[in-house]
Amino acid sequence: MKCALVTGGSRGIGRAVCLKMASRGYYVLINYKGNQAAAEETLAAVRELGSDGEIMQFDVADADNVQQVLGTWIEQQTEKYIEVLVNNAGIREDVLMYWMKNEQWKDVLRASLDGFFFVTKQVLNGMLLKRYGRIVNMVSLSGLKGTAGQVNYSAAKAGVIGATKALAQEVAKRGITVNAVAPGFIQTDMTAGLNEKELAAQIPMNRFGKAEEVAETVSFLASKGAAYITGEVINVNGGLYS
Ligand code: NAP
User: Fold this and answer.
1) One MF term in GO for this entry (predicted)?
2) What is the per-residue pLDDT across 74-130, written as a single tens digit (0 to 9) for each?
């Protein structure tokens, strides 16, 4: 049975990706860190679409935790295997560099960059053996152009972009593609505290994007039809930067 693992699948963009993968018939592994109720809601929505899945709690930034939960799950499977991995979990802790604490630097890098490494490492071997796989990493406009007040977040996402391009070259011969999606401003909990009206005025499309609009791009990159695209970063930002 083909599975799609979505880290940070409980809410926001990750939830929209889970539903998209469910609609394409995947058994969806919904990772979350702490919000079990939200993860359960995503699973219920997956089932309403006629697919199935399970919730999987682990902190992507904790190597031991990823090994214990995801590594053990993979070891125990006889029929299920992960064909699609979406490294979506991430946090932001915005503050000007001058005031940034070591923890704020580390926490943001750990969630996005360490998270990419720890999770992908568990999943990659299975893909190499099957000679097929789709890895999609959620980065950001900030990782491409840099954003003031987000030195930590911009560095984390730029790091994942570099890793995406390098890994893409390592595994291309094995039928595995590795790409990134770079959203601009998307309506989720992460952007709930921002002044949407003011920021939307800077966006050519004059609005924030929807999580579903990001999920569409992820779904395309995760499809068989995207076989000849790898090491690429696709912007989903309403024309803000392209
Ligand atoms: P969100 O609504 O805040 O949701 C974050 C998700 O990540 C939640 O499911 C959360 O789990 C999970 N998560 C956070 N840290 C984790 C960890 N250490 N281990 C496992 N799961 C973890 O965020 P979002 O807006 O959907 O963002 C999703 C991704 O898109 C992030 O990588 C973000 O950087 C990127 N992005 C977002 C925007 C935007 O405008 N929203 C723009 C560019 C890029 P819990 O529910 O358990 O807390």
Assistant:
1) oxidoreductase activity
2) 999 999 999 999 999 999 999 999 999 999 999 999 999 999 999 999 999 999 999
CATH superfamily of 2-236: NAD(P)-binding Rossmann-like Domain (3.40.50.720)
Quote the ligand 1 centre to 173 CA distance (angstroms). 31
If you measure from the C-alpha of residue 14 to the centroid of ligand 1, how many angstroms do you get, rounded to a whole number?
7
Contact 127, 169 (CB under 8 A): no
Write phi, then psi, for 111 (nearest 5 degrees): -65, -45
pLDDT per position as a tens digit, 196-242: 999 999 999 999 999 999 999 999 999 999 999 999 999 999 999 86
Mutate which of 13, 218, 233 for ligand 1? The one with the most ligand atoms within 8 Å of its CB, which is 13
Contacts of 150 (CB under 8 A, 6+ apart): 92, 94, 142
Domain ranges in the chain are: 2-236
